[in-house]
Design a protein that fits this description.
disordered N terminus, Immunoglobulin-like, 5-stranded antiparallel beta sheet, 9 strands
Length: about 240
């Protein structure tokens, strides 16, 4: 039996199965039932017009109303599953799987921000605070993405039980007395350290990034007594 014949016979069988002995349609929405029946009849007319025949007789068994409803429900579920499968993205190689599931690392995020011409890249300026002696690095920030990565080299490691570093962002669209909290972080003795910027609220026009040393957990408003590093955006 050819594939064309199988489709014709399936349509014909579905047409008959949707009707009981009295010619009434089973318990489906009238518009859907009429469409399915019309499609089945069209398949029969096309098969008859083309002279297509089947090598095996088609036997149609009229099921009870309950079985008909279950059968049609199963057919609709299969059609829905097929539609979802067609729409799903194809993952064909191991590399594709890795690209979908691989987490975004700070290294890759920093590289992506650096590759974006709209990103801001500024070097840290050392202060007189003891924690900043010999420290260097930079911050990369993107206004549109509201994401950034800080890089530190030689910044004094902190004991999180005693104090933590905290980033502040001076926003030209806000009162300079209340900079945006950019997140609390720790620095270990691993040499180069990358830290993600976690701004608590959207930043409009950053003019200065500053790192202070605060009590564990950070503060809501900094006294800026221990200003460790700063990066000026303008000037």
């Amino acid at each position: 039996m050819t594939r064309h014949h199988s489709l014709d016979e399936a349509a014909a069988a579905l047409t008959v199965a949707l009707h009981d002995a009295s010619g009434e349609t089973s318990a489906l929405p009238s518009s859907l039932a009429s469409r399915i029946v019309a499609d089945g009849r069209a398949q029969l007319r096309d098969a008859h017009a083309s002279g297509a025949t089947s090598t095996a007789p088609l036997v149609v068994v009229r099921p009870t109303r309950t079985l008909r409803v279950m059968a049609v429900a199963g057919w609709l579920a299969a059609a829905a599953a097929l539609a979802l499968w067609v729409r799903a993205p194809r993952v064909e190689t191991v590399a594709d799987v890795a690209a979908v599931t691989a987490p975004v690392t700070l290294e890759s995020l920093r590289a992506a921000l650096l590759a974006d011409s709209t990103s801001i890249r500024r070097a840290w300026q050392e202060s007189t605070d003891p924690s900043a002696r010999g420290a260097r690095g930079e911050i990369v920030w993107n206004d549109a993405q509201q994401r950034g990565v800080m890089r530190f080299v030689g910044l004094t490691p902190n004991d999180p039980r005693l104090a933590q570093y905290q980033l502040w962002i001076i926003d030209a669209d806000r009162d300079a007395r209340y900079p945006v909290d950019g997140g609390v972080f720790d620095v270990g003795s691993d040499g180069e350290v990358l830290v993600a910027v976690t701004a608590r609220i959207p930043v409009g026009r950053p003019t200065l990034f500053a790192v202070t040393l605060e009590r564990p957990g950070g503060v809501v408003v900094s006294t800026r007594e221990r200003l460790v590093l700063a990066a000026v955006v303008d000037g």
